[in-house]
Amino acid sequence: MTSVECIRLRYSDEKQLIEISQRYMLSLSIEEMKAIQKYFQALGRDPTDVELNTIAQTWSEHCYHKTFKGIIETPSGIIDGLLKTYIFKATEELNKPWCLIVFRDNAGLVAFDGEWAIAVKVETHNHPTALDPYGGAGTGTGGVFRDIMGVGAKPILSTDVLFFGPLDYPYERLPPGVMHPRRLMRGAVAGIRDYGNKMGIPTACGAIYFDYGYLCNPLVYAGCVGIMPTKKYIKNPKPGDLIVLAGGKTGRDGLRGVTFASMELTPESEQVSAVSVQIGNPIEEKRLLEAILRARDKYDKPLYSAITDCGGGGLSSAVGEMARGLGAAVELANVPLKYSGLRPWEIWLSESQERMVLAVPKNNIEELLEIFKNENCDATVIGEFTSTGHLRVKYHGETVCDLSLDFLFEGIPRVKRRAFWTPPLEEEVDFPQPGDLMDVLKKVLKSPNIASKEWVIRQYDHEVQARMIVKPLVGINQDGPSDACVIKPLKDSWRGVVVSCGVNPNYSINPYKMALSAIDEAVRNNVAVGGRRIALLDNFSWGNPEREETLGALVEAVRGCYDGAVGFDAPFISGKDSLYNEYRFPDGRYLSIPGTLLITAVGIIPDVRNAVTMDFKEPGNPIYVLGTTKNELGGSHYYMALGLKGGAIPSVDVKTAKLIMDRLVNAIDLGYVKACHDCSEGGLAVALAESSFSGGLGAEVMLSRVPVDGVDRDDRILFSESNSRFIVEVSKHSVQEFENLMMGIPCSRIGFVKPNSNLAVYGLNGKIYEENIWELKKAWKSTFDW
Q1: Per-residue model confidence as pLDDT tens digits over 412-464
Q2: Residue of 226, 258, 311, 219 lying closest to 597 (CA atoms)
Q3: If DSSP codes are grouped into helix, strand and coil, which group holds residue 680?
Q4: In the chain, what's the furthest Cα-to-Cα distance?
Q5: What DSSP line would sit under 543-610, residue for residue?
Q6: Range(s) within the chain of domains with CATH label 1.10.8
Q7: Average pLDDT over residues 283-309
Q8: What per-residue confidence (pLDDT) applies to 271?
Q9: Exactly one of 62, 65, 127, 390 is catalytic; which is it?
Q10: Global confidence as pTM
Q11: 654-669 helix and 511-528 helix, angle to the nearest 10 degrees
């Protein structure tokens, strides 16, 4: 009996081709199926199931990014690839010499100093988390760790940004097959906790966001930062090098994970696609990491000539991508299995976790295998790189796959889609100012998107490896919300890495402004602690791009990314897209997530001892506001608290924003700044409250002194979420120097830090409120007092 299935494809009509794509969960269009049919017609044979699945995963949206690489027709013209036209273009124009590896490996690499490099990657693991929150989020974390290991770096920091539906959503109203947001959140947090903690990698930078749009499709962004000697980076496999599979054994978990990730969710997804969720083992990955680092550092050059993660698409993707431009011959019978009974396509496509693929010169193989043996980590030779230009796979000597690598990577028809976008009306809402703004402030502080996430953060070990300088929680009680985290990677250097993020799907009604706002927030969070020389990562999670309006919104967001990156002088070094984040109801209706763009910013601080935190430090020090407050409350948490919709989404004056941030970094370096906090969700009102109760000090501020543009109401000054703004506590001994440095930009002294425990705010016509900061903190902490 043959070990493979031969799929009758050559003489199928269009209807049959679509049926084949659906039956085998290939997620391929009719144009793509016809291209495959034509290829095998020329060969005079039908494909095996191994070959067809190999092509499907290589051409999947998850692996190939075909929407971002496709041709898009818009009313203003043709876009020849979103990546090339906007994302890549921004990085190419900025042309930073410290950008070492961008968009061509598992992670982006930037120079740390003359000898060391920083590796960064952020991935999504959305669909698996919807089916199994613990396993999905945990293996998403493990997978991004391997992305860092896949360039030869040691992971030193983990990040997590999570999106769920409303925590108070009625159980009886949940759509079929959908888990409750509370269950999803608890499971995802536990999965991230257990993987990072057990591997000894600190989790220290992240966010959690709640919205009805994520009810059926939670989002998990897992990120990692690593460090490595620059000279140890190598990606140069040669014909004759052996293909080594290292790490965990192979099972059926994760089958067709990348094609599953390119599909919408339905009530049947849990039954049909449960096998697509991987099973994690962080202890196995810890052993794998130690073995790889030993193989990297045994001599001046690594014992391997190339290394990559075995993640999405399994061996098919890892071996195929490494063999591109060469060729490969693989014997699947040599792959270590968790259990017997796996068919060849299952071995080849399995996304079982904790596995890496290495190209190893034959004269190094014995030493490398000995290292892995000593670390109690499996490493097995499963094949050899060739010069044939073909990917040839056998199972017990029987050929089960023979594909041209040129066809595999270049034969996919380019996606051609239409995009249309109608700009929203952004008119401010006319309503009377609430009489009790303190009551509103407490309501905003309690809102899940702003409230303390200490319940989550305390589950993550952010002290392991002893590199953390500015932690996720700061202040006198180490429970205030830090704007960014600062790590000290090297024992013998005070130079540090600053990691921050920016995201606000509430602004998705204007995706161009949303993208600019996310970049502005990520950069200003970085700057708020002293970061500079910033690199960016873009991670898009979107709905179905086959809908013109959905794709039109994506085009607008990508356009905003280009303008933001160039304006802030911050190149993109890596990114990822996750599309088709939709749920289809039994009656045909669908629920799509809000267009969601996460921007991660990675900066440098020359001396971590100069890093600044957001908590007020000393009574009598003046408080300044940098940046202009505008009548921009569209998508604000103030409007959410009042149940209002509409309004103008915050814009970004990139030129002024860049000038403000450059001056602020200068002031931090000169020692003028004692505390700094960005104004974002909840605006000035929330920023002042957080800095006060985090520092255990009161404050007195006057809204009449806040730099404004067209704002004449206390509530709008307090709760506007205009971008590019900071509250800054300045040393009372450096006032004149600070003000001289800030000349020519929007900057005003609005008050001072007080020795008592009250936050007093005076409006345009007298005192608005005065409240004990511990009462404000109590409100802020009450939501997640689990």
Answers
A1: 999 999 999 998 888 888 999 999 999 999 999 999 999 999 999 999 999 99
A2: 219
A3: coil
A4: 88
A5: S-TTSHHHHHHHHHHHHHHHHHHHHTT--EEEEEEE---EEE-TTS-EEEPPPEEEEEEEEEES-GGG
A6: 14-62
A7: 98
A8: 53
A9: 62
A10: 0.96
A11: 10
The average confidence (pLDDT) of the chain is: 96
Structure-block tokens of residue 547: 């809908």
Confidence of residue 282 (pLDDT cuts 50, 70, 90): very high
pLDDT value for 701: 99
**Which helix (H) or strand (E) covers residue 184, if one does?**
helix 181-199
C-alpha to C-alpha distance for 679 and 660, rounded to whole angstroms: 14
Q: What is the pLDDT of residue 270?
A: 57
Radius of gyration in angstroms for the set of CA atoms belonging to the chain, rounded to a whole number: 27
pLDDT at 225 over 90: yes
Q: What is the predicted pLDDT for the residue at 1? A: 43
Q: Is the pLDDT of residue 733 over 50?
A: yes
C-alpha separations of 667 from 108, 530, 595, 706 in Å: 30, 9, 36, 20
What is the model's pLDDT at position 269?
64
Query: How many CB atoms neighbour CB 114 within 10 A?
Result: 6
- Helix axis angle for 548-567 and 654-669, nearest 10°, is 40
Alpha carbons within 13 angstroms on the beta-carbon side of residue 690 total 33
Q: How far is the C-alpha of 335 from the C-alpha of 415, rounded, in Å?
A: 35
Q: What is the mean pLDDT of residues 636-661?
A: 97
Catalytic residue among 65, 125, 637, 677: 125
Whether residue 637 lies in the annotated active site: no
Length of the chain: 786
Quick one: CA torsion of 562, 566, 571, 576, rounded to 10 degrees?
A: -10
Question: Hey, what long-range contacts does 75-82 have (CB within 8 A, 24 or more apart)?
Answer: 75/420, 79/419, 79/555, 82/554, 82/555, 82/558
User: Hey, is 537 helix, strand or coil?
Assistant: strand
Correct CATH for 612-786 of 3.90.650.10, 3.30.70.260, 3.40.50.1000, 3.30.70.600: 3.90.650.10
- Domain 14-62 fold: Helicase, Ruva Protein; domain 3 (1.10.8)
d(CA 368, CA 449): 48
Which residues in the chain are classed under CATH 3.90.650.10? 612-786
Q: Residue 260 — very low, low, confident or very high, per pLDDT cuts 50/70/90? A: low
The pLDDT of residue 145 is above 90:
yes
d(CA 276, CA 467): 36
Q: What is the pLDDT of residue 273?
A: 47
How far apart (Å, rounded) are the C-alpha atoms in residues 330 and 527?
49
Distance of CA 684 to CAs 664, 707, 773, Å?
18, 12, 15
Q: Nearest-CA neighbor of 616 among 494, 503, 729?
A: 729
**Catalytic (active site) residue 396:** no
In the predicted model, is pLDDT for residue 276 greater than 60? no
- Asked if residue 4 lies in contact with residue 344, where contact means CB atoms within 8 angstroms, the answer is yes
- Whether the Cβ atoms of residue 223 and residue 212 lie closer than 8 Å to each other: no
Residue 71 CA to residue 414 CA, distance in Å, equals 7
